[in-house]
Amino acid sequence: MKFDTPATNNPIDQLKVVGQPLDRVEGPLKTTGQAPYAYEWQDVPGRMAYGYILGATIAKGRIAAIDTAAARRAPGVLAVVTHENAGPLGRGQFYVQRFLAAPEVDHYHQPIALIVAETFEGARDAAGLVRARYVEGRGAFDLAAQRDTAPVAQRAPFGGPPETAVGDFEGAFAAAPVTLDETYTTPDQAHAMMEPHATIAAWEGDRLTCRTSIQQMNWGLRDLSLALGIPKDRIRLISPYIGGGFGGKGTVQSDLVLAALGARAAGRPVKVAMQRPLMFNNTIHRPATIQRIRIGATRDGRITAIGHESWSGNLPGGRTEPTTLSTRFLYAGANRMTRVRLAVLDLAEGNAMRAPGEAPGLMALEIAMDEMAERLGLDPVAFRILNDTQVDPEKPERPFSTRPFVECLRVGAERFGWSRRSPRPGAVRDGAWLVGMGMAGAIRGAPISKAGARARLDARGIVTIETDMTDIGTGSYTIVAQTAAEMMGVPLERVVAKLGDSSFPETPGSGGQQGAPSVTAGVYAACTKLREAVAHRLGFNSADVTFADGEVRSGNRAVPLGQAAGAGDITVEDSMEYGDLSQRFAQQTFGAHFAEVGVDAYTGEVRVRRMLAVCAAGRILNPKTARSQVIGGMVMGIGAALTEEMTVDKRRGFFVNHDLAGYEVPVHADVPHLDAVFIDEVDPTMSPLKAKGVGELGLTGVAPAIANAIYNAIGVRVRDYPLTLDKYLEHLPALA
Amino acid sequence: MRPFTYERARSPAEAAAAAIRNPGARFIAGGTNLLDLMKLQIEVPPHLIDVNGLGLDRIEGTQEGGLRIGALVRNTSLAADERVRRHYGVLSRALLAGATAQLRNKATTAGNLLQRTRCPYFYDTAQPCNKRQPGSGCAAIGGVTRLLAVIGSSEACIATHPSDMAVAMRVLDAVVETVKADGTTRRIPIAEFHRLPGDTPHVETALERGEFITAVTLPPPIGGRHFYRKVRDRASYAFALVSVAAVMQRDGTGRVALGGVAHKPWRVEAAEAELPRGARPVTAAILDSAKPTHDNAFKVKLAERTLAAVLAEARG
Amino acid sequence: MVRVSLRVNDEVRSVDLDTRTTLLDALREHLQLTGSKKGCDHGQCGACTVMVEGQRIYSCLTLAVMHEGNTVTTIEGLGRPGNLHPMQAAFVKHDGYQCGYCTPGQICASVAALDEIKAGVPSHVTADLMATPQVTADELRERMSGNICRCGAYSNIVDAIIEVARSPA
């Protein structure tokens, strides 16, 4: 099916099931511990063996010698995989990391061996018996040291152009009566999803089946095929339940490759879960950035020049963190420039984490906007409204498909009680607490991609949908089932959604907040085909047929849906493809975040007291699960603002706090009641569902809203995330 | 985790004897720190002596009017004990500020005292660490030190002691009771129980080999208002940047100890005379020999301000 | 190898285990009870929370051999699909989970947390150590802080627990 003109009325618009705040369909399985995650499958044929990953203990260099004799002799050990016996290994297309040090070591904790044994305890113990001798090389670990030398990045997929220029930025900035030129930093961050990367790999002859934890099955298939050098059609990946990903499980990580190698070496199915203390230096992460922002404005607050330059680092050939993406679209201004530079760093790979680019980009831009509003004597909400744009600022002939950004700001300000904010920092005291309010705008692209689905109707009237889309906690199962239920006129209980199997029709999976709009459009296409097949089977004229209440109706005839499959299941497959609407319209999601914090006047401890997100993301397919996506983003934003940082030892070249005690993500006590609401809108340029994703929007803008609230509370501007108390303690009010 | 043999001890003296018989053996009670370290091969005991069956899980009054806390009393039980809440609130508060309910349900009084540092370089076996491997060096010095010691450290080690409970016990002048393999017992004042790193940071306490903690005793209540103020990055489930244990009397006198700043709970009794004059002179005296790093210099200021918060609350 | 008998979810289960096997791995790898999750294996996340003798603990930081004869309750022992425990039902209703990986631990921890409040165990945020602790959002946030949810369902989890606490038993 092709979608190349804006959607008109269609069966989805009935909103009997779609758009309803329904409970997750897999809820009873998840809350009773019955949903099987990658490491937990009991049905794998053969006797299971256990793998344990050993990581490199240097940051850069090569393995001079590796002695596995003692490990191989240890009780129950079946195999030890190293570069000496693994055979040639390729890399994936999206991550540049290599899955095994062979023998060059590219970063700390890069795998040097997989030990396979009868038991987990045996494999773990034997890992300690492997002796590696290294020749250490010189690595680069300090981003700031390369600020003057890092070249402009190469163009990469999903990253946008590394440089943009509109009008005369330098001239306009120099001429502007009010200007800001400040530099901000964001740290290396970890996805820290709760389920570690895990795989059960099993070979049958030359065919490989892996139960694993991968967000994008198609990329997983492609990249595992490249890594192992075997054709994709001999690999099957199964990931129906994924314990969080946030981009960190986008595609193949070393657990998957090593499990496959280990299973081949041991001649047995092998299960591997990457040990938590390895994850931080072994897998990808969101890389640190340095960002310089310059804004020039007229005295009445109209932006005339906006510039955003950014630095990040990566392994050779790795991607940049495209922080300038949102600056290109969020505010008006005739003269603009962006530039991203990329240093080479010998740390673990930097790559996609929830709202890559936009999340750290807005962490800088939205503090800058707060600072600029103050310089102009304008309210931060009013300043943003004043600089709204209804067209792509780089291409004024290209409108936004929808852009209720101002509405987000106004609704948010009203609902949050923004008018009670004191514009003077440090002015509000509540006992020992200095209290402040802050806000930030949010923007995140609304991509959509070709996605397929298979739909099957059986004689009982059960509609089964199969697609390789994944549910990483996002609610995919539920919205897939809702879409099919709406299309086929059946209650939700009559739909079975099957996800996360690479043998199912292809989708872009969970990533870039494009999963929900893409997969539901694919299900729409498959169900449209199923409706036609049903009508045909029943001898109905498909033009006037309706599907409702479990029946198919045409004229004065009405038959139960299942009757159409009385002579056998009807199975159809289709996908949704797209025309040029995304070129003709700038498709983005928008939001506004508001935060109130208390800062202890003595100790500087911060407590977030209230938070509100107002989001616009087209039609909200399920307000309950969409709200959860947003509040989940808000929690991650609290972490980004206050605590999360992988600290680099710049001498030894590794992230020092590489476990969940050292890398502090928010806990219950950090999070107040969270309020999130959606602007009522549809975007017909997206798909027949008129929906956009929301999972990444919920994160963008949260951290700067909190940072701005802290400034409002204490009157000290901190431009380096996270805003830990040591960065402003000296500047708190003197003690009585 | 290396293979180990396992036995259940039947009496404290027998446990101590078993430890002498099995070089490198460890007692295991709650296990919440030991097993964590064994999984990483930071601790590699060939033999574990399970002491959970010894019944040392009672809190009893002493003849002097204090409390005798069995070594195996769980942190939750100790914090919730009515006598502790009423008369030793600083201890209850300190326990509740530490770890999580799940850990406190397991962790014991003796184990809490014996927990090892959370220095990230100690925790990473690829890094040199004099505490983990004597003589290998200290990777923390010159490295990432924000959470590490500002006082009492040495050229060999800048680790901190992670316990909250021990800081409160230091303020309460607790005494650690032990038994050795030969059945002899001794009482070690808490001030002497934990050692400074010096050039032997792997020797962390005054315990001898096989010496087994049976109880911790608290002197009779000293009255006053009890405070334990712990400052950390996130609001819970985190180790202290700085903590202040304090018992303040109505006349402005009191006692104070600091956590998160040194290899042991840090108390300087002489500094307490300054308490009526406010936080600055007290912390100045307590931390006068501090040698912080660039990254953790804030702890000195933070200690002062945290004590100021406590004193303000005590006044209010 | 040692023989260990546990009373798990009202059923006596005996298995031969390596002394090094944690209670968590005994449940997951030997008793096929994979509802208890391994998130970190170091007591830093809470996903492995189960109740032993009625008390919540991290099953990753204890050895199975240390629990001979003990009564263990896991998420599988609280309720099943179609017959959910009230806390499980409340989590579904309030969407107190997303990816589901921390969820069994959160649910076990919340059941135990309410018991601890009932038993009068104070918390870090209990204002008066001598007063009877109450079920409040702040109390629950502190008491549940040993269970990390990276998806960030905290606000909904607290709503779910409060509903259970306030509903007639």
Automatic annotation (TrEMBL), chain A:
Highest taxon of the lineage: Bacteria
Keyword annotations: Molybdenum, Oxidoreductase
Protein name: Aldehyde oxidoreductase molybdenum-binding subunit PaoC
Residue stretches making up the Aldehyde oxidase/xanthine dehydrogenase a/b hammerhead domain: 32-138
MF term (GO), any: carboxylate reductase activity
Keyword check for Transcription: no
EC number: 1.2.99.6
InterPro entries found in the cross-reference section: Ald_Oxase/Xan_DH_a/b (IPR000674), Ald_Oxase/Xan_DH_a/b_sf (IPR036856), Ald_Oxase/xanthine_DH-like (IPR016208), AldOxase/xan_DH_MoCoBD1 (IPR008274), AldOxase/xan_DH_MoCoBD2 (IPR046867), AldOxase/xan_DH_Mopterin-bd_sf (IPR037165), PaoC-like (IPR049648)
Coiled coil location: none
UniProtKB/TrEMBL annotation, chain B:
Classification via InterPro entries: CO_DH_flav_C, CO_DH_flav_C_dom_sf, Diverse_Substr_Oxidored, FAD-bd_PCMH, FAD-bd_PCMH-like_sf, FAD-bd_PCMH_sub1, FAD-bd_PCMH_sub2, Mopterin_DH_FAD-bd
Alphabetized UniProt keyword annotations: FAD, Flavoprotein
Lineage top rank: taxon: Bacteria
Residue ranges constituting the FAD-binding PCMH-type domain according to the UniProt record: 1-223
UniProt-listed Pfam families: FAD_binding_5
Flavoprotein as UniProt keyword: yes
Presence of keyword Phosphoprotein: no
PANTHER family for this protein: ALDEHYDE OXIDOREDUCTASE FAD-BINDING SUBUNIT PAOB (PTHR42659:SF5), XANTHINE DEHYDROGENASE SUBUNIT C-RELATED (PTHR42659)
Name of the protein described by the UniProt record: Xanthine dehydrogenase family protein subunit M
